[in-house]
Amino acid sequence: MSGYLDELEFMMMEEGFTTRDLLENLLMEVSQTSDKGAFFVADLGDVVKKHLRFLKALPHVKPFYAVKCNSSEGVVRTLAALGAGFDCANKTEIALVQSIGVPPDKIIYTNPCKQISQIKYAASHGVQLMAFDNEVELRKVARSHPRARMVLCIATDNPRSSAFLSVKFGATLKSCRHLLETAKEMNVEIVGISFHVGNGCLDLQAFPRSIADARLVFEMGAELGYKMNLLDIGGGFPGTENSKVRFEEIAATINSALDLYFPEGCGVEIIAKPGRYYVASAFTLAVNVIDKQEVPLDPPGSDDEESGSKKNILYCINDGIYGSFSCIFFDRTCPSPVLHKKPSPHHPLFSSSLRGPPCDGKDCIADGLELPELQVGDWLTFENMGAYTIAASSSFNGYQLPQIKYIMSREAVRLLHGKLPLPEEEDRESMCTPLSCGWEITDTLCITPVFTPARIT
Ligand code: PLP
């Protein structure tokens, strides 16, 4: 594990004690105090579990975690301890992963539009693997980083993603020959091809199509005398179980395409840059209701007979779209809350809306929810809040990032500490459950919750 987790404070959870149990305890504790700030519970065992699942489903692919998705310390340290590589988009992310001891050969600098000073920073910090998709970038790299090993990023054809990246990045197949020729003239080393099918990709054919395109560019390169040896299949994998397409289904299509176009023994190393996949389900956000008002559901002047009898309750909570709910912009999703106080089935439900702290009318988190009436001081929790939430939040209006409380099951800690052997491939799936403190573990197993503040030393 080589000490990556030495500095991290987290709560060690006994088997059977779930994230939900911990939240219940924490919410009870904070309810006694005046500080009712929003906070995250991050289950690092879930990240460990995802890693094992990745290795099982894509045995020939090495993961390089996309730091931009969630750069929180616990995630980065856990993945470093697991031996993952890192996809960094800029100097700040490179500095972050290097500050905990990640070696430069475990880093790929993937932003195809890099500031010259940051290319020089990568050069002086030993980071050689970098992406490009245009001639200007090649010129900058030729001048500022002669030892760079460049990966040509190709465009994908997949608008069925929540964020379709090829609108902005990626060379067209037509321009690839020219770019490869230009790189030769400039003496820039090209070692491979990359693509990204887009975030939240639902098209099962997207990966096979892009892998086939990458093969074409490998052949183009071979004609020009290149000996490329790296294929980067990017990110875009789902991070939660409620995704329309399962990770394993996508992995199966990738494996078939790799068998066809880049079979084992062909001398090409395959990497991927998953972001959302690793972190989405590990984070649960707890927020507090800080204000409420009733507004008529029907607009004034409406001739609906029952006009005035229907109401919408507008709740203001202490995190919003400029904070952890920035994922609403990114993913175009509508997060739905879990109520902390379980309502009785007899309580009437009201049309309800959630707004962020009152500083901007656009801070709208959800509309049209059917909720029992809540009170100021009540808690709501949101699951699956790890991807593009904290990472994309801002300090607008003095927002502060919610505190993150890290937890890990004792089993996951043992595994990371090297006290358990990494499970053999066929056993990995069965190993997974106790690693996470996830909701799915039955809460009857542990009557007295035990959690110990921990550091691994
Ligand atoms: N790699 C690159 C270059 C990206 O731009 C992104 C996200 O935008 C990722 C990886 C991670 O994508 P995802 O979170 O969909 O896996």
UniProtKB/TrEMBL annotation:
Q: Which cofactor does it need?
A: pyridoxal 5'-phosphate
Which InterPro entries does the UniProt entry name for this protein? Answer: Ala_racemase/Decarboxylase_C, De-COase2_N, De-COase2_pyr-phos_BS, Orn/DAP/Arg_de-COase, Orn_de-COase, PLP-binding_barrel
Alphabetical keyword list: Polyamine biosynthesis, Pyridoxal phosphate
Its Gene Ontology cellular component terms are:
cytoplasm
Source species, domain of life: Eukaryota
Among PROSITE patterns, the record links this protein to: ODR_DC_2_1
Segments forming domain Orn/DAP/Arg decarboxylase 2 N-terminal: 44-280
GO biological processes: putrescine biosynthetic process from arginine, via ornithine
Which Pfam family is an annotated match for this chain, by its short name?
Answer: Orn_Arg_deC_N
Residues carrying N6-(pyridoxal phosphate)lysine? K68
The GO terms this record gives for MF are:
ornithine decarboxylase activity
Q: Where is the active site?
A: C359
Name of the protein this chain belongs to: Orn/DAP/Arg decarboxylase 2 N-terminal domain-containing protein
- Source organism of the structure: Gopherus agassizii
Q: What is the lineage of its organism?
A: Eukaryota, Metazoa, Chordata, Craniata, Vertebrata
